What we know:
about 280 residues, mainly alpha, MetI-like fold, 2 domains, 16 helices, flat
Amino acid sequence: MKNTSAYYKKRLKPIPLYLIVILLSLIFFSPFLIMVTTALKTNADAFELPVKLFPRKFIWSNFPEAMEKIPYMRYMMNTILITFLSIAGQLISTPMVAYSLAKIKWKGAPLISTLIMGTMMIPYTVTMIPLYKIWSGLGMTNTYIPLIAPTFFGSPFYIIIVRQFFAGLPNSLMEAAKIDGAGELRRYVSIALPLSKPALTTVGIYAFIAAWSDYLAPLIYINKTEKLTLSLGLQGFLNQYSVDWTHLMAAATIFVVPVVIFFLFFQRNFVEGIATSGIKG
C-alpha cells in the first residue's frame, strides 16, 4: 500500500505545474485566437453583444477582400526582400565576429566583447534620431539601405549567442585541425560553421521575426507608399472615423502565418541553439 501511495503521489505531483503551463498557454494564445475568429466574422458579428468568440457564419471571403483593399502583394514583396537580405546579413557577419571573439586569441577581444554586451543596454530610441540624421545626410532615406545595411555588421544579441556557442566548442578540435595544416579560415569554414547550425538557426529565426515584423524603422525611413512594408501597410485599414476590423484582422492573420510556420519548421533547431548557447563563460 505504501508503494502504491508513493507511486500515485509521484505521478500526481507534476499535475499543478501542467495546469499552470496550460493556463499560461491559453492566455498567450488567446490574442491569436481572437484575431483569427474576428477575421472570419462580419462587422456586425465582430461588435455583437454579448461578445461571442466564434462567428455564427464563417466569412472566408474576408481574406481575399483584405488583400484587394490595399496593395497587399506589393507590401509583402517589399517585406520579403528586406527580411531575406536582413537574414543573409546577420548569418554572414554574426558568426565571423563571434568566432574571432571566441576562438582567435588577440589582445582586444575581451574588451570588444564587453563593449558589444554594453551596447545591448542602449535602447533604439536613444540612437534613433542620430541614425536618421546620418542616413538623411547620405541621401538614403526612402530606400531600404538603412534597414538592410546594419545587418551586415551584426547585432550584439546575435553575436553574443553565437560567441557563447563557439566558446563551448573543444579547443582540442581546433588544435587538431591546426596540426593537420588547416589555417584559421579553413577551421572556421570547415569545422566551426557546420557545428554551429543550431546557434545560426536561432539567429536566423530571431532575425526573421525582427525584420518581418519591424514597424518603427520602416516608419522612420520609408515615406513612399509603394515602398511600404506590411507592418506599415496594414494602416490602410484605418481611417479617420472607423476601422475595418474584420479585414484588418484577416490581413494581420496572413501577416502572422509565415512567422508561425517559420518557427514551427525550425523549432527543434531553435530550442537546441538556445540550450547550447550563451550559458558558458
